[in-house]
Amino acid sequence: MNAWVRSQPRTLRPYFGAEAAETLLDDMELVLKIGDPPVPTRRLIIDEMQMAEISPRLYPKLSETRLDEVFGQRRSAFDLVVTLRTPQMLRRELVARYALSDEAPEVVDIPDDMLSDARLTGLFELGVSICLRDEKDLGAGWPEQIGSWVSRGTFTIGLDRRQSAFRIEMLTEAMIKERALPTGTMVWVDVDDLNVVYEEGTACATAYVSEKLHEKFTSGKTHPAVTALLYAEIVCAVLAAPDNGIKEATEIVSGSPLENIAKNLSTTRALSLRDLKKLIDDPARLRATVHDSRGLVKDLEKV
Questions:
Q1: Fewer beta carbons under 10 A from the terminal one: N or C of the chain?
Q2: CATH for 16-158?
Q3: What three-state secondary structure class fits 233?
Q4: How many angstroms separate the CA atoms of 267 and 270, rounded?
Q5: What's the whole-number mean pLDDT along residues 163-179?
């Protein structure tokens, strides 16, 4: 019998007219801090100090001549889109959008106020794509639906230890019955001590999210405002959990999840352990603080 080998699977792309565009972002570069060399790969593990000091700068490296060659008169129909995603916080934000009818940007700085979730969880994804701005008939082999991409790439930057420090899983009907929870429970958390340093591959907290909501999150169909509300519920639940180790703590351990939480709950300086304990004893103020740190009002204004 003759042996056979199946060829490597390939993502099917119907845009045969735009095939040349798929390589436009191949030369883009990312530096984590001004003065640093570009990251050597699209997936990079960094240490805690690097994550604390990140100030990412993207260089799209788009050639004006090449853009004209690939798109011709269609160029004005496309945008360069940059997004920041923090998977464990179920959040994706628009960093910038540039019309390619104008000259492509040489550099894109990621605002520091967008990086709080990345520093908290130790993981973020910077997505770059060239997308169709509006629904438009560009001819055979070209996209026509708004948001369709013809070129894209992603930088994934994270810490080994903290990639799994916080997990978000599905709250199934079986779990609801097993834990005697109300049938309409949206979020339930299991929390271990937040004030210790965790080794690679371990988790200090797992948030279980309603099955239908979880399905929408994983499919990217959830409105940012709903994601923001869910995030607030998770953080408040984690901080209110009886086994999180905060009540017994006498100091905040360096490198612990609690240290990152204390830093990211304030826009000015890290909260002290005393301030954090006061917040936990005042649930209304705790929620207000979480809402502020998450930018909840800004997300709700978009509804």
A1: N
A2: 2.60.40
A3: helix
A4: 8
A5: 80
DSSP per-residue letters across 67-135: HHHHHGGGGGGEEEEEEEEEGGGTEEEEEEEEETTSPPPS-EEPPGGG-HHHHHHTEEEEEEEEEE-S-
Q: Cα 98 from chain centroid?
A: 20
Cβ atoms of 272 and 280 within 8 Å: the answer is no
For residue 71, give every residue at least 6 positions away whose Cβ sits within 8 Å of its Cβ, in sequence order, or none.
Answer: 21, 77, 78, 100
In 10 A of CB 138, how many CB atoms? 17
Angle between helices 224-240 and 211-219 (to 10 degrees): 130
Per-residue confidence (pLDDT) for residue 217, from 0 to 100: 65
The tens digit of pLDDT for each residue in 15-60 reads: 788 899 999 999 999 999 888 889 988 988 887 667 878 999 999 9
pLDDT 10s digits, 92-113: 899 999 999 999 999 999 998 8
CA 101, CA 73: separation in Å to the nearest integer? 9
CB atoms within 10 A of CB 275: 15
Crossing angle of helices 283-294 and 224-240, in 10° steps, is 140
The CATH 2.60.40 domain(s) of the chain lie at 16-158
Would you put residue 188 in left (φ > 0), alpha (ψ -120 to 50) or beta?
beta
Q: Residue 69 carries which side chain, given as an amino acid letter?
A: E
